[in-house]
Specification:
single chain, alpha/beta, Aspartate Aminotransferase, domain 2, seven-stranded mixed sheet, three-stranded antiparallel sheet, 12 strands, 36% helix, globular, binds pyridoxal-5'-phosphate
Length: 499
Amino acid sequence: MTAAGDRLRPTLFERSRPGRGGDKVPHPPKDALARIPADQLRAEGPNLPELDEPELTRHYVNLSQLNYAVDTGFYPLGSCTMKFNPKVNEWAARLNGFAALHPLAPDELAQGTLQLLWELEQALAEIGGMQAVTLQPAAGAQGELTGILMIRAYHRSRGDLARQDVLVPDSSHGTNPATASMAGFRTVTIPSAPDGGVDLAAFRAALGPTTAAVMITNPSTLGLFESRIGELLEAVHAAGALAYMDGANLNAIMGRFKPGAAGFDVMHINVHKTFSTPHGGGGPGAGPVGVGEKLLPFLPEPRVLRQPDGRFRLERPGERTDSIGRVRAFVGNTGVLVRAYAYISTHGGTGLCQVSDDAVLAANYLKARLAGVLDIPFQRPCMHEFVASAAGLKAETGIRTLDVAKRLIDYGFHPPTIYFPLNVQEALLIEPTETESVETLDAFADALRAIVAEAHADPETLHSAPHNSPVRRLDETAAARQPNLRWRGMTGDQSPCPD
Ligand SMILES: *Cc1c(COP(=O)(O)O)cnc(C)c1O
């Protein structure tokens, strides 16, 4: 049996036939080649596939249909907020004035984009309870780095060089410790309390004159709101450290909890999660960072400024001497920021609050529907996502979370996040989002119930799942350790996905 199903087609190179299709390209002027210096000319033509237009179109459309997308089905990937992306956002992001603006256009010619960025900064500052926002970082992970670099600059500006430690809970996203290390800090991991929340006593014990910052995700990656957050923030500040909020889970709390007002000094917002934007393929995204009073001077440059006459301009290099400098070229991933602006403006304040309420309702509904199907390690009400576990199922049947996830594909669903957070055995992190109907949630719960029944009756079907997908179960270790990155022909037995 091969891992590649019959829906995988030959590549463009294999379909290529000499002389087919190239005629559609308009012919260049006769002397075009004569104008190019001889040493810049190719000795041979480029090795490009030659196809006619219908074949080319079908090739890409067929490829696109191998993908699972939030536009084709339920995508409950916990921690990622794979919500539906309203098509009006796509229309806005493609408007010529935004999409075709040259990144080096002078401010006078970029007033519309600058105004949109400025207004988006105001909106995100309001939502996060922050003083100001930078839109530059290209993703949440880069937002984290930006925030921690500002914290480093803050301590240095006070001559406080002993602060080398960043405390993170064990449920945190891997980007948190990675960020701390990249910024030159030592990561100190703090185990969670038995109820899944932060262990306040453990944090208190670890805080001290060497603590630079604490990174907290609230709600946590277990989908739980940190009820002791006020006490924790007091302890952090009493120790002279700053509090970083990982805002990836903002989808649960808009209009209900403002991290800045609660005392967080800095947070990133994954606008490609909370404010739509399709990001399942790995990007692009944007990770704006909001700061409170203490970190204001260190924001990356250039900021967008509104002048007294109502016009907008970018800061000039060196205008703010304490800035940590640029973290990305130009002003950020503008297309993603336009989508976020469109999303925020179409919902308005009360609409965003409703988004969070509905996301929390959907997660709690699905969690209740799965009681008795999978283990639910944390019983208290969840926020926009919740953790289930197949540890009990594994003990009874040998079926693991990975098998359940692969079998879900046969039922037409994208699996949830699995084996994360790391502090729960056989974890499934499920995030339905506010954009799904109750019928979809019911169908997903029914599929999981059916799969658990199969685990008892017919475990072999689960071990070898998925059965109906473009590729069958792959050896994920081999794929990670010996990635097959070179194109090989698919003719004969040379499959790119070997048995
Ligand atoms: C997604 C996520 C990140 C990283 O954000 P990217 O935009 O993917 O770089 C960090 N923390 C948490 C909790 C996340 O869910």
